[in-house]
Amino acid sequence: MSHKEMIVRHKLVDRLCHWTIVFVGLVTFLTGFSFFYPSFQWLSGIVGTPQLAKVMHPFFGIAMCLLLAVMLIRYYQHNKWNKYDLPWMKAVVWVLLQKEENIPPVGHYNPGQKMLFRAFVVFVLAFLISGIMMWQPYFAPMFSAEAVNWATLVHSACGILMLLSLVVHVWMACWIEGSITGMLYGKVSKAWARKHHPAMFEEHEE
Ligand code: HEM
Predict the structure, then answer these.
(1) What is the required cofactor set for this protein (predicted)?
(2) Are 117 and 79 in contact (CB under 8 A)?
(3) 167 vs 145: CA distance, rounded Å
(4) I need a surface site. Which of 12, 94, 109, 193 has the fewest CB within 10 A?
(5) pLDDT at 63 over 90
(6) pLDDT number for residue 1
(7) Hey, is 187 helix, strand or coil?
C-alpha cells in the first residue's frame, strides 16, 4: 500500500513504551501471582527462584506503572469524552453484532477503550500506593499492621481486576483486525481509519 494511503496512529516512542510495558508487565504479573497461592509458586520460574521473584516484583511493578503513566499522559487528549461517545454507547448492541451501517462514528478511541484507559489510571495509582505500603523491609515498617493488611487487599484485588481488564483489552485488539499491526508499525490504512474511527479519519483529512 502506498504511503499516501497510510495514517500515523501511534508514534515510535508510544509503541516502544507500549511493548516494553507488555514485557515488564508480564514479569510483574507472573511474579505477583506466584505469591497468591503455594500452587502458583512455579510462576516465579520466569525470574529463576521464589526469592528472586520477591526482590524483583516491586522493581518491575514500579517500571510498569511509570511507563504506563507516561503512556496515559501522552494519550490523555485522545481519551477525553467527546460528542461522539454517547451516540456510540447507545448503539453498543450494533457494535457487538458488527452491524457497521448502524454504528455512529467515533474519534481516535471508542468509549470502551476510554473506559479501559480510566481503569488503567486507577490501577497505576492503586498499585503504586498500596505496593509501597507493603514493601518489606523498606516502607512497610512505617505503617501499622492494619494499614498494610488493607494495602495487601487493595493490591491483590487490583491484580485480579487489571488482569480481567487486560483480557478485554487484548480481546478488543484482536477483534479489530489491523489494530495490532497499527501498534506494531505505527501506521494504519486510511480505509481502516474510515471504517473503525471515522471522526479521526475526517479530522486527518481536514
Ligand atoms: C499482548 C498484549 C497486548 C496487546 C496485543 C495490546 C494491543 C494494543 C493495541 C493494538 C493498541 C492500540 C489500539 C488502537 O489503536 O485502537 C493498544 C493500546 C494501548 N494499550 Fe495495549 N496491548 C497489550 C497489552 C497491554 C498492557 C499489558 C497494557 C498496560 C498494562 C496496555 C496498555 C495500553 C494502552 C494504555 C493503550 C492506549 C489505549 C488508549 O489510549 O485508550 N496494553 N494495545
Answers:
(1) heme
(2) yes
(3) 33
(4) 12
(5) yes
(6) 65
(7) strand
Query: Model confidence over 169-179: pLDDT tens digits?
Result: 999 999 999 99
Mean pLDDT, range 53-71, rounded to an integer:
98
Which of 90, 88, 91 has the alpha carbon at shortest distance from 107? 88
Beta carbon of 166 within 6 Å of any ligand 1 atom: yes
Q: How far is the CA of 104 from the centre of ligand 1 (A)?
A: 23
Query: 151, 161, 77: which is closest to 119 by C-alpha?
Result: 161
Per the structure block, which three cell numbers stand in for 81? Answer: 469524552
Alpha carbon 180 to chain centroid, angstroms: 14
The catalytic residue among 169, 196, 197, 204 is 169
Residue 47 dihedral angles phi and psi, to the nearest 5°: -110, 0
Taking a C-beta distance cutoff of 8 angstroms, is the pair 25, 206 a contact? no
Average pLDDT (140-167) is 98
Query: Does the active-site annotation cover 169?
Result: yes
Phi, psi of 174 (to 5 degrees): -75, -30
Residue 3: predicted pLDDT: 67
Instruction: Judge whether residue 81 has pLDDT over 70.
Output: yes
68 lines ligand 1 (CB under 6 A): yes
pTM for the predicted model, two decimal places: 0.93
Q: Distance between CA 59 and CA 128 in Å, rounded?
A: 11
